[in-house]
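Form P-L/3: holo structure prediction, ligand nicotinamide-adenine-dinucleotide.
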Amino acid sequence: MTVLTGAGVSAGSGIPTFRGSEGLWKSFRAEDLATPEAFARDPKTVWEWYDWRRQMIARAVPNRAHQVLADWSRRFPGLTLVTQNVDGLHERAGTENVIRFHGSIWELSCWDACGREPWPDDRAPLPELPAHCPACAGLARPAVVWFGEPIDPDVLARSRRSVKCEVCLVVGTSSIVYPAAALAEEARAQNAYVVEINPEPGASAVDLAIAGKAEEVLERIDVLIR
Ligand SMILES: NC(=O)c1ccc[n+]([C@@H]2O[C@H](COP(=O)([O-])OP(=O)(O)OC[C@H]3O[C@@H](n4cnc5c(N)ncnc54)[C@H](O)[C@@H]3O)[C@@H](O)[C@H]2O)c1
Ligand SMILES: [Zn+2]
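OUTPUT (holo model):
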């Protein structure tokens, strides 16, 4: 089984999704901040937004959705979880086999691509904004995939292999952001049984749509299969 997750699994932990009024920060839309163009124009503002999100995530704790999926990942070794989330809550819940499709908000990388590998930094707030690269003293950026940037080829290849599965759960994603949204379509094209869990019906065609919150629906399924 493969589980594809999006911002909706972390909504129950108080982390806003991108789409919806709670996703706004100082009247900016996420699509206008999470881009290389926005960073090139105004790195300080983009970093302030990330620093605000890092502080919010640092205070948050994994909810029942993260916990049930973490438990399944230990009980069913064939389970792979591909997440679009950058918050690290699946990992904090103890999930095994996590593929981070869009990187991690807890890693930084060099904006000037000086050759330094991405490095972990869990300080929230960061002492200095914008942050800098320890190797070349140029600007550092969050090591996340921004709108318009490609997915790491190895991550993409592993994710695509993972959707050659019998059952694919699609949890808490609006299925709008490509190529992430294509994974559920690929799963279905390869005859996986695709189940969506989302309080609002998503964009993609699925075999079964369960309208509900991830933290409630996963909890109920977990009780049924125990
Ligand atoms: N927590 C995070 O790391 C985080 C938060 C916001 C956005 N993002 C990034 O934004 C991009 C947006 O795509 P996306 O599809 O993940 O998010 P999205 O904001 O586009 O969609 C969120 C989806 O979650 C659903 N949802 C809301 N509450 C839910 C709940 N309790 N249970 C289940 N579903 C619920 C909504 O109906 C919506 O379909 C991704 O690339 C992701 O990296 C990440
Ligand atoms: Zn550098």
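COMMENT: The chain has a mean pLDDT of 95.
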